[in-house]
Amino acid sequence: MARRTSRKKQAGQYAIAIVLALAILWFSWLVFGIARKEEIARKAVAETKAELAALKGREAALSANMAELSTGRGQEATLRQTYGVAKPGEEVIIVVPPEEETEKVELPWHKKFLGWFGIW
After folding, report:
1. What's the domain count of the chain?
2. Between the N and C ends of the chain, which has fewer C-beta atoms within 10 Å?
């Protein structure tokens, strides 16, 4: 009879080991899910911070534009740039860059001589 109790005891221990192994697997799966969600949340926070920085830069640019448009001179400059308008009596001024001076190179006598004959 001692032999039967040891088999029953052994079967019970196997059952407990299987239940514990399943519990460990289940808890591992739960921890993996939480870690995955935490990584997704961390990426979302980084993307949100980058978006916030971009929006703050845009806000600064828009504030500068609003400050410029609040003055009469700024409104006039914006109208001139956007629509290409001018006040009555104004004319178009075209600024031409100065021509670059090319240095005249003095040719040697033999090249001048051959140039008369069309060789050089």
Report:
1. 1
2. N
29 found inside a domain = yes
118: left (phi over 0), alpha (psi -120 to 50) or beta: left
Domain that holds residue 43: 2-86
Chain segment 69-99, per-residue pLDDT in tens: 999 999 988 888 888 888 888 887 788 888 8
- Angle subtended at Cα 89 by Cα 88 and Cα 94, rounded to the nearest 5 degrees: 110
Q: What angle do CA 13, 14, 15 make, to 5 degrees?
A: 90
Is 111 domain-assigned? Answer: no
pTM score > 0.90 for this model? no
